[in-house]
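Fill in residues.
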């Protein structure tokens, strides 16, 4: 009897051990299958949560030391391209900024962003239907500022992305093609859509393809300048004419945004001369 009891207990323990081994194997198989999904989810979560925090960020005025070897205009825009990772979420020195881009199709929005963030960052961008996210990290007096730029495609299918792109954005760039009057006329609609979801973001009106614009007849240039300035005043927006091809005013626009957000001692000079890249505010 004692021998049979020992055999019975041993058999039961072996059965329990086998069930545990099978359970571990099943769990490991499931983990292997979802590992890719997990990595993908963390990637999207790192992009979206960092750029769309629920509470508005509080920004401090950045002080400047006179010992800096850079001029004021250059000191706060020392730039470094980097990829956002999970360590940034817990870094108190990282300030996250969200910037939205709106405008018609084929006006150079994505080219404009790539000129600013660089080709390497463009390769690491997160692309969704009707939406393209790109990052750039700036170093300002030792503080790290991460700009997440939400580029909304200009077709009708992308209209559903506007709420997500504009929510919590600190600046909204409304863009048009300087050589296309129809895209200029449409900026009012884009601005109205943005304001439905964000009442406080800094508005900036940007005319692209300035290098093509200067080839237009002078009277047509004057008409476009006049109309663009009128729209900018109605939006209470700063107006920039730019060219991604020749890097005209691309970096200056983002410098202007940083100066506005952080009360930095740098301002742009107004330029209203027809035939030159307009800056009006």
């Amino acid at each position: 009897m004692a021998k049979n009891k020992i055999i019975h207990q041993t058999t039961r323990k072996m059965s329990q051990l086998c069930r545990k081994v099978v359970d571990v194997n099943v769990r490991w198989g499931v983990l292997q299958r979802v590992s890719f999904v997990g990595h993908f989810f963390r990637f999207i979560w790192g992009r979206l949560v960092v750029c769309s925090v629920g509470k508005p960020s509080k920004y401090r005025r950045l002080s400047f030391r006179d010992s800096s070897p850079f001029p004021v205009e250059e000191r706060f825009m020392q730039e470094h391209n980097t990829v956002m990772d999970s360590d940034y979420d817990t870094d108190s020195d990282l300030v996250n900024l969200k910037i939205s881009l709106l405008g018609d199709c084929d006006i150079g929005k994505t080219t404009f962003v790539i000129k600013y963030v660089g080709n390497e960052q463009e390769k690491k961008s997160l692309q969704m239907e009707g939406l393209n996210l790109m990052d750039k990290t700036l170093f300002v007096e030792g503080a790290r500022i991460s700009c997440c730029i939400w580029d909304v495609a200009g077709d009708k299918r992308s209209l559903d992305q506007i709420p997500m792109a504009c929510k919590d954005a600190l600046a909204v760039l409304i863009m048009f093609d300087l050589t296309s009057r129809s895209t200029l006329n449409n900026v009012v609609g884009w601005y109205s859509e943005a304001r439905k979801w964000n009442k406080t973001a800094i508005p900036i009106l940007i005319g692209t393809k300035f290098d093509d614009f200067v080839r237009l007849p002078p009277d047509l240039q004057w008409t476009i300048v006049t109309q663009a300035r009128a729209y900018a005043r109605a939006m209470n927006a700063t107006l920039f004419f730019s060219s991604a091809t020749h890097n005209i005013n691309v970096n200056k626009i983002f410098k202007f945004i940083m100066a506005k957000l952080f009360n930095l001692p740098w301002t742009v000079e107004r330029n209203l001369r027809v035939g030159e890249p307009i800056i009006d505010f």
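The chain has a mean pLDDT of 76.
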